[in-house]
């Protein structure tokens, strides 16, 4: 290994608590990153990985401080720098690619100006030259038509493009170290792959060292030279990526590997994972949902080149009772709009929707409300989908109250039974949603969705906002509930690794159309469409698994 660029020794980071004590978020961490090396810091939320990265950048939030240890960059001790000196280090010596481009970019400044600002602040270029170089940096970051994009605002760009803008900002002053804090966790797998490929190219081209913060061991194993596994602020394992993946020594590392959908080819069933063929499909008790020729057009403003946007175009599929049908595709493919049409939250422009053998395409008013008792939904964000004013008991019993099911005591009994079903302690019933973790909130959302014994549950990206270990727990819960209650799922996802674990049939959507559908194993093992092959190739961890197979 070449000479270390970043050296962290015995690092301790603490946060003051309301009671006057100190919470130790990082405990005695040693870490090095060599010049031109990619080191992945891996762990769940709360493991301390982002705290460690922020400590290295002197960006700890209020109440946090480095209580012990040293941080050196190219031999220079960063512990005694003044705030003014740190302004010269951040951006110039150490670049940061933050997780969420939505909150990391100035919404009222053009993206070209935001890139140019870094060059001006660090004296790399004057204002006029900085604007010209900003366009070139956007091009280096992989943005098409950078001249036009430089004049746009962040809201006019997709999530993937906004993330590329953050990369352009991070590399603008050609820093020696790049800290990438969950840089792709909010992106579709295909966009994620393109961003990480581009980051790899920049590392090779510029010789930049990278500290990659991620909860996804599949991403880490594919991209990093070395892995450092952090649990509750302590490094529990580190080593070359292939070695850690092939022969993990610590139980926590093994748990992360087992939880990563991209590192498993097995299907989830009650009691563990077995081959996909062990699950019966094509059950004889008919379909719950059948859509035929669905089309949805949204009108565009006057003056637009087209009168309408076709979001869903001639979509047909069937969801059989007791099974899981997955709609998979990138953002903008039309899968969530299709789900909203199936739930009759949107009216189709054309086509037909049959629910339990009844045509509900044009049903309205009281009859539609009655039918909606039979289909419920679990949304992507466990933080936005639960009312923060309600207790968990009120959240779960809300659909029961809305449909006047049972007495108050019977509804309370049902709530206790449901929290037990989703493996939560009864004490959570008295707590508010804000007091729960993301995984616990999603369990509450699932309990609410099944409270009315629905014939169909629509799961719209239900695990994409969660850590892989929590994600695995929720997927296992969904499979168990399906087996115990005979539930039928319409599962929306951009991730074929997740779909592989839970679905019986899959439909692949691109630009509003289903381009391929069939049995999940058939689609994954023998995809016929180029787009499906691209989705499969984008599953993180495939590169690492291929390397392991070759080594064996």
Which residues form runs of ≥5 with pLDDT under 50? 272-285
User: Radius of gyration, Cα only, in angstroms?
Assistant: 25 Å
The CATH superfamily label of the largest domain reads P-loop containing nucleotide triphosphate hydrolases
Major sheet characteristics: 6 strands, mixed
Distance between the termini: 25 Å
| CATH level 3 topology of the largest domain | Rossmann fold
**Helical percentage:** 25-40%
Put the structure in a nutshell:
By secondary structure, this protein is an alpha/beta fold.
Question: What can you tell me about this protein's structure?
Answer:
The protein has 21 helices and 22 strands. The protein is of the alpha/beta class and 552 residues long. It folds into four domains: 1-93 and 177-260, P-loop containing nucleotide triphosphate hydrolases (Rossmann fold), CATH 3.40.50.300; 99-174, no CATH class; 285-298 and 307-374 and 456-552, P-loop containing nucleotide triphosphate hydrolases (Rossmann fold, 3-Layer(aba) Sandwich), CATH 3.40.50; 384-453, no CATH class. The strands form five sheets. A six-stranded mixed sheet has the order 6-7-8-3-9-10, sandwiched between helices. A hairpin with a 2-residue loop joins strand 21 (505-510) and strand 22. The radius of gyration is 25 Å and the shape is globular. Residues 272-285 have low confidence and may be disordered.
């Amino acid at each position: 290994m070449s000479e270390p660029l970043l050296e962290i020794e015995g690092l301790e980071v603490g946060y003051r608590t309301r009671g006057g004590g100190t919470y130790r978020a990082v405990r005695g961490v040693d870490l090095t990153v060599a010049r031109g090396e990619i080191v992945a810091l891996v762990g769940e939320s709360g493991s301390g990985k982002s705290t460690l990265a922020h400590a290295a950048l002197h960006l700890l939030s209020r109440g946090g401080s480095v209580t012990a240890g040293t941080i050196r960059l190219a031999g220079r001790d960063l512990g005694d720098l003044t705030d003014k000196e740190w302004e010269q280090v951040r951006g110039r010596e150490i670049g940061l690619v933050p997780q969420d481009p939505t909150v990391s970019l100035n919404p009222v400044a053009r993206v070209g100006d935001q890139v140019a600002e870094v060059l001006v602040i660090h004296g790399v270029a004057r204002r006029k030259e900085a604007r010209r170089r900003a366009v070139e940096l956007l091009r280096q970051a992989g943005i098409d038509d950078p001249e036009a994009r430089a004049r746009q605002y962040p809201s006019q760009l997709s999530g993937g493009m906004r993330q590329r803008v953050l990369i352009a900002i991070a590399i603008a002053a050609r820093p020696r170290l790049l800290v990438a804090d969950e840089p792709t966790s909010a992106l579709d797998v295909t966009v994620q792959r393109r961003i990480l490929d581009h980051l790899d190219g920049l590392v090779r081209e510029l010789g930049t060292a990278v500290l990659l913060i991620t909860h996804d061991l599949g991403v880490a194993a594919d991209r990093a030279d070395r892995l450092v596994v952090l649990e509750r602020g302590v490094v529990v394992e580190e080593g070359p990526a292939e070695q850690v993946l092939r022969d993990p020594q610590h139980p926590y590392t093994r748990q992360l590997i087992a939880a990563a959908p991209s590192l498993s080819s097995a299907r989830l069933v009650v009691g563990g994972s077995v081959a996909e063929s062990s699950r019966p499909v094509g059950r004889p008790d008919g379909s719950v949902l059948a859509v035929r020729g669905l089309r949805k057009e949204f009108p565009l403003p006057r003056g637009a080149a087209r009168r309408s946007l076709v979001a869903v175009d001639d979509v047909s599929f069937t969801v059989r009772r007791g099974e899981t049908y997955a709609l998979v595709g990138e953002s903008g493919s039309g899968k969530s709009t299709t789900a909203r049409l199936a739930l009759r939250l949107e009216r189709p422009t054309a086509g037909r929707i049959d629910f339990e053998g009844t045509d509900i395409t044009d049903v309205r008013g009281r009859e539609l409300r009655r039918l909606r008792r039979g289909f419920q939904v679990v949304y992507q964000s466990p933080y936005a989908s639960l009312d923060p004013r309600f207790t968990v008991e009120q959240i779960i019993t809300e659909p029961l109250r809305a449909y006047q099911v049972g007495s108050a005591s019977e509804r309370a009994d049902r709530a206790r039974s449901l929290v037990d079903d989703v493996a939560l302690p009864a004490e959570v019933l008295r707590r508010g949603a804000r007091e729960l973790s993301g995984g616990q909130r999603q369990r509450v959302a699932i309990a609410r969705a099944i409270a009315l014994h629905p014939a169909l549950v629509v799961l719209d990206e239900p695990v994409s906002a969660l850590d892989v270990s929590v994600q695995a727990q929720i997927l296992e819960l969904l499979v168990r509930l399906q087996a115990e209650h005979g539930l039928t799922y319409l599962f929306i996802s951009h991730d074929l690794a997740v779909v592989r674990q839970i679905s019986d049939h899959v439909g692949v959507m691109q630009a509003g159309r289903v381009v391929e559908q069939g049995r999940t194993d058939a689609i994954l093992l023998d995809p016929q469409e180029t787009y499906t092959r691209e989705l499969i190739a984008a599953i993180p961890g495939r590169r690492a698994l291929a390397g392991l197979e070759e080594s064996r």
